[in-house]
Amino acid sequence: MKKFIAAMSVSALAVTAAYAGVTEEDLANDQASTDQVVTNGMGRHLQRYSPLETLNKDNVKNLVPAWAFSLGGEKQRGQETQPLVYDGVMYITGSYSRLYAIDVNTGEELWQYDARLPEGILPCCDVINRGAAIYGDNIYFGTLDARIVALDLKTGDVVWRDKIADYKAGYSYTAAPLIVDGLVVTGNSGGEFGIVGEVQARNAETGEIVWTRPMIEGHMGTLNGQESTMTGTLNATWPGDLWKTGGGATWLGGSYDIDTDTLIFGAGNPAPWNSWLRGAGEPTEGNVGDNLYAASRVGIDPKTGDIKWHFQTTPREGWDYDGVNEVVAYTDRGGNKRYATADRNGYFYVLNREDGAFVSAAPFVKDITWANGIDETGRPIFNEPNRPGNPANATDGNKGEVVFSSPSFLGGKNWMPMAFSQKTGNFYVPSNEWGMDIWNEPVTYKKGAAYLGSGFTIKPNYEDHIGSLKAIDPDTGKWVWEYKNDAPLWGGVMTTAGGLVFFGTPEGKFIALDDATGEELWSFQTGSGIVGQPITWEMEGEQYVSVVSGWGGAVPLWGGEVAKKVNYLNQGGTVWTFKLPKQLASN
Ligand code: CA
Q1: Given CB 3.0 to 4.6 Å as the disulfide criterion, which of 75, 192, 198, 485 pairs with 96?
Q2: Is 174 one of the annotated binding-site residues?
Q3: Residue 320, annotated as binding a ligand
Q4: Is 26 a catalytic residue?
């Protein structure tokens, strides 16, 4: 928008009339517009790639702090957000559903919004938030009581506020909303409570619901207040009434492929975790037990909310391998338009962008036990003995056979986003090498109560590292290099045309690697664990990099033996902003 105004040589009145804040064009051009970051993912394809090369392999050693901002208060815990930068202001969300506007030049606070959360919210995996979205003069973010809020960019005043779902039933909200053609598109969280995953689209100006799309077969979608189409075919892949509490939470939000005009959302585990209860226990007819569209990626028409295609990564899922991980649209070295996604189940998939069809899959972690590979249709070749046992066959009827499965339920990769370099053609994937003892137990659905039917203990697979950042060639599935880290990685990755890969560790280090070799070129100790998502932009000819530091997230809560390994880490809550001063840029 700034460039547009500067180009106009008309009266100030006309400029005011033309000002529309962040436009659809701004969102579409976010990657190329290096003076602002107005989308989660640094572009709605979620490449997290900047064409900036001012900061590069030679001069990154001169990157220095410009300012730091504390989120303050006693509310710390995990800070998983990605900052946005627009019109001289940085916007960040914080733990406990807070949002801050910060002067991007000085680091001073302009305003803060603190959602008043009710008693009894049920976030499964820490009180985190993963970012906001900007459109027009508003900024949007979701809150832990499953609401979406629109705030005035300049003042932080509430413009509108709406309920996504009932927090008392276990719903919550943590993802960055996605804006496409004037619609605010959101998912939901709560897959461990027997909720039903859904995607909702609202008019960004008014908050009015335009369409809804449930992710579990049998549920009806809506369009303009009327029933539209059923998701899938009732009881095609789910037995009985289990689809009514079938999970498939869309908790990581989605991406947008402008070339095919498609929203891509992932759906989490089917509920409950115990797969033997979902029709996959006995020899079945057809694909009953696959439990669509849980553990799947789904392509959605942004105008109607109708499903265009789906790809299920883990049919009859039974290890909590949520299918939510981000789907990144990119062009491969051969000029083919592809999607890539690194699944919780340990496989890195490449799909066709026209129809979501399977192209290839390769492991991105070392010790996958649950499958022996992926067949030519994209379906896993199950290693049957590695399925947690059926409690109905247990002598006491309570605890099925315990198996050691890898990756652990927190995944070969969890929510933390990977990055794609248009320069190298490789993906930079934050992964973890860990497994778990897992077993099944009987369970019945109860509103607002955990609905798992499983127990588990996570264990490291290696003595010297769990975290593993890998450069992966998507054309071959081969690993180009690996950077090992003691603690599990839980933050996002960013890469730049300057040849750098940025990420942070739970031990507090913010690191820049050489994109070709994985060699560490620069690091800075931020004082608390990094589980946030870095960005970069330029101001007045200087390149800046920001990341939010603040340890937390699912690992310390659910990490079993791994949680013990990281319990010395300090909490925090600080935005760190670095810059390459002009006079040091050529060194
Ligand atoms: Ca899950």
Answers
A1: 75
A2: yes
A3: yes
A4: no
CA 453 to chain CA centroid, nearest Å: 25
Measured CA to CA in angstroms, residue 210 lies from 51, 99, 217, 367 at distances of: 35, 26, 21, 44
d(CA 290, CA 246): 12
Ligand 1 centre distance from Cα of residue 442 (Å): 18
130 is in an annotated binding site: yes
Is residue 398 a known part of a binding site? no
Q: How many CA atoms lie within 13 A of 539 on its CB side?
A: 22
CA distance to 283, 398, 401, per residue, from 394 (Å): 19, 6, 7
For residue 571, the SS3 value is: coil
The predicted structure's pLDDT at residue 5: 44
- Model confidence over 452-489: pLDDT tens digits? 999 999 999 999 999 999 999 999 999 999 999 999 99
Cβ atoms of 71 and 100 within 8 Å: the answer is yes
Residues of the chain with pLDDT under 70: 1-19, 280-286, 587
The number of C-alpha atoms within 13 Å of 346 and in the hemisphere containing its C-beta is: 22
User: Residue 243: phi, psi to the nearest 5?
Assistant: -60, -20
- What is the dotted CATH code of the domain comprising 2-48+81-280+294-584? 2.140.10.10
Q: How far is the centre of ligand 1, averaged over its atoms, from the C-alpha of 269 (Å)? A: 5
Catalytic residue among 145, 320, 322, 515: 320
**460: which 2 tokens?**
């490291």
Cis ω for the linkage preceding 272 (within 30 of 0): yes
What integer pLDDT is reported at residue 280 of this predicted model? 61
Position 584 scores a pLDDT of 87
Cis peptide before 568 (omega within 30 of 0): no
Q: Which helix (H) or strand (E) holds 115?
A: none
The reported pLDDT for the residue numbered 14 is: 44
pLDDT value for 396: 80
Strand partners, 158: 151
Name the token pair of 276. 């033997």
Q: Which two tokens stand for residue 114?
A: 């603190």
Domain positions in the chain are 2-48+81-280+294-584
Cα–ligand 1 centroid distance for 293 (angstroms)? 14
Ligand 1 centroid–CA 263 distance in Å is 21
Placement of tokens 């009339």 in the chain: 17
For residue range 77-110, list pLDDT tens digits in order.
Answer: 999 999 999 999 999 999 999 999 999 999 999 9
Specify whether the CB–CB gap between 292 and 322 falls below 8 A. no
3 state SS of 77: coil
Q: How far apart are CA 207 and CA 222, in angstroms?
A: 16
The candidate with the shortest Cα–Cα distance to 78, out of 99, 90, 93, is 93
Please give the Cα distance from 515 to 509 (Å, whole number). Answer: 18
Q: Nearest CA to 247 among 168, 143, 170?
A: 170
